[in-house]
């Protein structure tokens, strides 16, 4: 391992430069990347590019690798299953990994039993299916989401997404039967449901905003959303694609408030790095759509299911959840000290290992340029990071929950140096 946190001038050469040139020729500009490098291999939280340079990863594939990249237990499960059965579509014949994973997830999610589970491929696909289930169960067309939400890039998921740039720009019209209200506020939702509640089939909410900037709502927000939704006869959908599987220090973020949703959308880290997602929910709701309405060719692929069962095993003893909380406390303390020492105006926040820094200028306005400069400084020091927020002024951390202490501190040292470098004056 040749980790090097020395800042370097931009402009990749070698194989990286060649492959980025290839990317420019053959991949459309709409497929963007936060860190212009080309990764060849990864283990845990260390990623190696095609030129042999090592990077520290604070992105986890945008929250898809809570157990780290290439965890031995996950790789072993993938290898064993791939040698036995690589794929069969569940619409052709069932396979045991699908059924065992559905059984396992049904016991894990904070939903009133009996619970049923359908598997799919991506978080956006899970959102689409959750809306179909809610509409079939209620016979109502409207779906309510929240400002600054991110639910995916497919059509219904994108219609529910509140972040306009870059996701929704120039590609409308989107699905008409969607209403959005401010996140973290109860009164607008109450007024909407009072006026149109008989037409609302579902309310979908992220317990903590993900792409919206790791925003934690007031403690009574989610319970009140649940109360109002059920009073209106609508279905409460919790989108735990980014907050689930230990990111917030509980297995699911809903558990922090005691809210038990009707349907829950899962994805990202559920598969340990393979494409997998799920909708879990109360049985009477899940059974509302008729045969053939739900599913997909690769939904519940056996190899991905085997990986997920290994991930479930890794969370079983609670140690990863304890580690997530300790990681978050340490990272927030380090980042608070860094912004204070640099004289930078910023909000350091988070729950468990869901940690972010939001940058502001001296007038209190979102400081997108500062966040971009910090991210660029991290990249020059070979630390992979991501931004978020409605103004892209939030640096967010998706560290693997089992990241080594030394590696975590080296990454936080890089962020500290990048903040100092970008600080005005």
Automatic annotation (TrEMBL):
The keyword Transferase appears for this protein: yes
PROSITE patterns with a match to the protein in the record: AA_TRANSFER_CLASS_3 (PS00600)
Molecular function, one GO term: pyridoxal phosphate binding
Pfam short name (any one): Aminotran_3
Cofactor(s) the protein requires to work: pyridoxal 5'-phosphate
Keyword Nucleotide-binding listed: no
Enzyme Commission code: 2.6.1.19, 2.6.1.22
SUPFAM superfamilies: PLP-dependent transferases
Pathway: Amino-acid degradation; 4-aminobutanoate degradation
Signal peptide: none
Top-level EC class as recorded in UniProt: transferase
Keywords: Aminotransferase, Pyridoxal phosphate, Transferase
Domain of life: Bacteria
Catalyzed reactions per annotation: 4-aminobutanoate + 2-oxoglutarate = succinate semialdehyde + L-glutamate; (S)-3-amino-2-methylpropanoate + 2-oxoglutarate = 2-methyl-3-oxopropanoate + L-glutamate
Family affiliation: Belongs to the class-III pyridoxal-phosphate-dependent aminotransferase family.
UniProt-recorded name of the protein: (S)-3-amino-2-methylpropionate transaminase
Organism: Candidatus Amunia macphersoniae
């Amino acid at each position: 391992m040749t980790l090097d946190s020395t800042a370097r001038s931009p402009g990749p050469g070698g194989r990286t430069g060649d492959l980025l040139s290839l990317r420019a020729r053959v991949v459309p500009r709409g497929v963007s990347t936060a860190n212009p490098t080309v990764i060849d291999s990864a283990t845990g939280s260390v990623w190696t590019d095609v030129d042999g340079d090592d990077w520290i990863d604070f992105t986890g594939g945008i929250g898809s690798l809570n157990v780290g990249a290439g965890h031995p237990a996950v790789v072993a499960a993938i290898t064993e299953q791939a040698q036995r059965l690589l794929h069969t579509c569940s619409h052709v014949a069932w396979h045991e990994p699908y059924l065992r994973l559905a059984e396992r997830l049904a016991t894990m999610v904070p939903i009133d039993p009996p619970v049923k589970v359908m598997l799919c491929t991506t978080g956006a696909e899970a959102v689409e299916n959750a809306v179909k289930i809610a509409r079939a169960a209620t016979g109502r067309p409207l779906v309510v989401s929240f400002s600054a939400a991110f639910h995916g890039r497919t059509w219904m998921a994108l219609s529910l997404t509140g972040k306009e740039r870059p996701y929704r720009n120039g590609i409308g019209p989107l699905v008409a039967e969607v209403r959005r209200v401010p996140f973290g506020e109860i009164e607008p939702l109450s007024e909407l449901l009072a006026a149109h509640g008989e037409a609302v089939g579902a309310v979908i909410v992220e317990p903590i905003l993900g792409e919206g900037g790791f925003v934690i709502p007031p403690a009574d927000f989610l319970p009140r959303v649940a109360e109002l939704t059920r009073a209106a006869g609508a279905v409460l959908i919790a989108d735990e694609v980014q907050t689930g599987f230990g990111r917030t220090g509980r297995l699911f973020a809903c558990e922090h408030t005691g809210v038990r949703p009707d349907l829950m959308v899962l994805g990202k880290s559920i598969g340990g790095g393979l494409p997998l997602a799920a909708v879990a929910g109360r049985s009477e709701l899940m059974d509302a759509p008729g045969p053939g309405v739900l599913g997909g060719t690769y939904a519940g692929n056996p190899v991905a299911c085997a990986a997920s069962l290994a991930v479930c095993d890794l969370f079983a003893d609670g140690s990863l959840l304890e580690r997530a909380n300790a990681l978050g406390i340490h990272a927030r303390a380090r980042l608070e000290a860094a912004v204070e020492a640099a004289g930078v105006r910023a909000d350091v926040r988070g729950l468990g290992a869901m940690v972010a820094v939001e940058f502001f200028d001296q007038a209190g306005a979102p400081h997108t340029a500062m966040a971009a400069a910090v991210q660029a400084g991290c990249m020059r020091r070979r630390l992979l990071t991501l931004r978020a927020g409605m103004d892209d002024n939030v640096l967010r951390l998706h560290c693997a929950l089992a990241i080594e202490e030394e590696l975590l501190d080296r990454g936080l040292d890089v962020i500290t140096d990048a903040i100092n470098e970008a600080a005005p004056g």
